[in-house]
Design goal:
about 450 residues; five-stranded antiparallel sheet; Immunoglobulin-like; single chain; disordered N terminus; Endoglucanase; signal; TIM Barrel; alpha/beta; 10 helices; Glyco_hydro_5
Length: about 450
């Protein structure tokens, strides 16, 4: 694989912008009577594997626009372009055109915004004959320059002494494992919330409960499972449920615990624009925290990895990386996050990416570990963001399969795979960790239910 390259094609219009209306730039051929205006387009090749490449595109304009269409000519032959965060795109010969997706159309005066990305077959080369909304950006092909290096995020308050985040700091992927700030392998262990909108009480949002689990159960990480599609969940009330997720993020930062932000959906690929908007906003405001882990797609159902799930991940990963260049992102896999071996055959390009594996020990046994072993052998880093010592329905029959669950626990320990157990709530399912009457703020020693004693034993 050739080294990653960063290119920026900058083309400045030497004439004045006389008028700007929704989605259009009109250029007047002024001789300098007005202030010069211009446009910049950043063309960043983020991954190049010889036979193809992935690139991100950003736009800077001197004056506000409310929509955009960009077009250019590739200097080399490309084919098979797959773009995300656009409403339409086309490639005719070497001429490429792409139009905004609506939500990413407005760009303020002087603002730089990463607007879309794409993968393509062929040599990435350069781009020339650039136009923005039908108007040439400069004359000819512009000038290829080296773009500025990303700046470090603003410093944040240190994690409390003695907490998991204080001990390990910012995490990253190292080979097929997770490593901490000192490059030492680390295995995080914790629990997941219930779908937020279906909780019997807001256990997930209570800071005292989080700190109690940290101090008494020994959790390193908490997963906030924000339901997306059912009635009453995120798509029904985005502002409310994003605010609830923010509460969990704030609590985790204060408690020094890692937090997984989970877009808890089974058909997230049908809501790509909503997911991109959700993660773009949170990544812009929380991406500087060292304890954030993003999970864009909980459990894709039986859909194509390369044709459906991977393009969704490419879109969301690009949106996150535009704001947060390095926190870990965990990518869901088909068949309710079982098919990690399939994902290993066509992985998403990028850094600090892990892949989701889920198991329920009465249903998923050695055959599922074989698939996971194949993915690890192929170089994937796995994260079990959800598991239970029950059947795959979460234990509706109340049954536990603890011997098989212990085999899974031992396998995860041997491979350094982090995990969060399902789920922090009250109810009859054997994966509910709490019994009726469990208080909101912790103190649950006498309120354990289902597989909770087994989970807690393996947390410590």
């Amino acid at each position: 694989m050739r080294a990653t390259r960063r290119r920026k094609l900058t083309a400045i219009i030497g004439a004045a912008v006389a008028a700007l209306s929704a989605g259009a730039i009109t250029v007047a051929a002024s001789q300098g009577a007005n202030a010069a205006a211009g446009c910049d387009v950043g063309y960043e090749v983020v991954s190049d594997w010889g036979s193809g490449f992935q690139a991100n595109v950003s736009i800077t304009t001197d004056q506000r626009i409310d929509g955009w269409t960009v077009e250019w000519d590739f200097t080399s032959a490309v084919s098979g372009i797959s773009a995300w965060n656009v409403s339409k795109s086309s490639l005719s010969g070497r001429h490429f055109t792409a139009t905004d997706a609506g939500w990413n159309g407005p760009i303020g005066a002087g603002q730089t915004r990463e607007v879309f990305g794409f993968t393509a077959d062929g040599d990435s080369g350069d781009i020339t004959n650039l136009k923005l909304n039908g108007v040439a950006c400069g004359e000819g092909g512009g000038e290829q320059t080296t773009g500025p290096e990303p700046t470090d995020p603003e410093p944040t308050d240190p994690a409390p002494a003695g907490t998991p985040v204080e001990e390990h700091g910012k995490l990253h992927v190292c080979g097929t494992q997770m490593c901490d700030e000192s490059n030492a392998p680390v295995q995080l262990k914790g629990v997941s919330s219930m779908w937020l909108h279906w909780q019997t009480q807001p256990y997930a949002q209570n800071r005292s409960a989080l700190e109690w689990m940290r101090d008494n159960w020994g959790i390193d990480v908490f997963r906030v499972a924000m339901g997306v599609e059912p009635e009453g969940a995120y798509l029904s009330d985005p502002a409310r449920w994003k605010a609830e997720v923010e509460t969990v993020i704030d609590n985790a930062a204060a408690a020094g615990v890692y937090v997984i932000v989970d877009f808890h959906a089974h058909a997230a690929h049908q809501h790509t624009s909503e997911a991109v908007a959700f993660f773009s906003d949170l990544a812009a405001r929380y991406g500087d925290l060292p304890n954030i882990i993003w999970e864009p797609y909980n459990e894709p159902e039986q859909v194509s990895w390369s044709g459906t799930v991977k393009p969704y991940h490419q879109a969301v990963v690009a949106a996150i990386r535009a704001e947060d260049p390095d926190n870990i992102i965990v990518l869901g896999t088909p068949t309710w996050s079982q098919d990690v071996d399939v994902a290993a055959g066509d992985p998403v390009s990028g850094t600090n990416l892990m892949y989701t594996l889920h198991f329920y020990s009465c249903t998923h046994q050695q055959w599922n570990r074989d698939k996971a072993d194949a993915a690890i052998d192929a170089g994937l880093a796995l994260f079990v963001t959800e598991w239970g010592a029950s059947a795959a329905d979460g234990g509706l029959d109340g049954r536990l399969c603890l011997d098989e669950a212990q085999t899974w626990i031992d396998w995860m320990a041997a491979n350094g795979i982090s995990w969060t157990a399902w789920k922090l709530d009250v109810g009859p399912d054997s994966t509910n960790l709490l019994a009726s009457g469990a208080p909101l703020t912790g103190g649950w020693t006498n309120y354990l239910h289902g597989h909770a004693p087994f989970v807690i034993e393996n947390l410590q």
